[in-house]
Amino acid sequence: MTESSRRIVLGALLLGIGVMFAASVVWRLDGKPLVHDHAPAATAQAPAQMPPAQTAPGTPDKAKMEQAAQSPQAMAIMGLMQKMKENPNDVETLLALAQTFAEQGDMEGAKDMVQRATVAAPSDHRPPYLMGVVLGGQGKWQEAAEQLERSVSLKDDASARYSLGVIWRYHLKDEAKARSHFEKAAVLSHDPSLTSMIKAEIDKTAGTK
Q1: Contact of 134 with 107, CB cutoff 8 Å
Q2: Could you give the angle at the alpha carbon of 31 between the alpha carbons of 147 and 142, nearest 5°?
Q3: Which of 4, 61, 69, 161 could serve as a FRET partner for 202 with CA atoms 20 to 30 Å apart?
Q4: pLDDT at residue 39 greater than cutoff 50
Q5: How far apart are CA 53 and CA 61, in angstroms?
Q6: How far apart are CA 196 and CA 140, in angstroms?
Q7: Backbone phi, then psi, for 101, in 5-degree steps?
Q8: 80: pLDDT confidence band, cut at 50, 70 and 90?
Q9: E strands along the chain, which residues?
């Protein structure tokens, strides 16, 4: 899988969190569950003219640093970190931080937050789902599947089942397991967009018979 495809997959997994966090997150805000991407990576083109002068490597650009520190993402992280300081075991805050770190590509930071959430709420199905997101973003499909399986063992969920189906079909190459997860996802799903995606995968299965 190309780096471009992996980023698309990670984004798709993060979108699946929206379905699982339906009480607090709108599904379309974060995307959709794990999907298999066939699009080729974009080809970089040479600039038509010389780029403007840049700051020498290793030299911080003060204006850019100040702008980054005041960005909505940075402010959101600061707010979440303050909430975590006040209540280190607040699962919602820990998961929000984990998701934010994952979206920014900080997988180690995301893992740390997920692990804390798991300790704070061992029976909550969301931390292992989010750990599956992180591991999938790193291309660790077997480990991602194990975490998603743990999530559905705590609470069966259409988004997690769909993501498992995609992992088993396109990455771990077990069509029987993939079909089983898609069929279970179809029964559980109440989201029209997700249901449409599940049906598309089930139709592919039917077409191979």
Answers
A1: yes
A2: 25
A3: 4
A4: no
A5: 13
A6: 27
A7: -60, -40
A8: confident
A9: none
- With residues binned 3-state (H G I as helix, E B as strand, rest as coil), the percentages for the chain, rounded to 5, are 70, 0, 30
Segment 178-198 mean pLDDT: 95
The residue to which tokens 């191979």 are assigned: 208
As given in the structure block, the two tokens for residue 80 are 């979440």
**What does R_g of the chain's alpha carbons equal in angstroms?**
19
The dihedral region occupied by 92, where left means phi > 0, alpha psi between -120 and 50, and beta the remainder, is alpha
Q: Exposure pattern of 148-172 as b/e (b: 16+ CB <10 Å)?
A: bebbbebeebbbbbbbbbbbbbbbe
- Cβ within 8 Å of residue 36, ≥6 positions away: 9, 166, 169, 170
Question: Is residue 103 within 8 Å of residue 14, measured between CB atoms?
Answer: yes
DSSP 189: -
Q: pTM for this one?
A: 0.69
- Tens of pLDDT, residue by residue over 134-143, are 998 889 999 9
Name residue 108's amino acid: E
d(CA 93, CA 149): 24
Residue 19 and residue 157 in contact, taking contact as beta carbons nearer than 8 Å: yes
Amino acid in position 62 = K
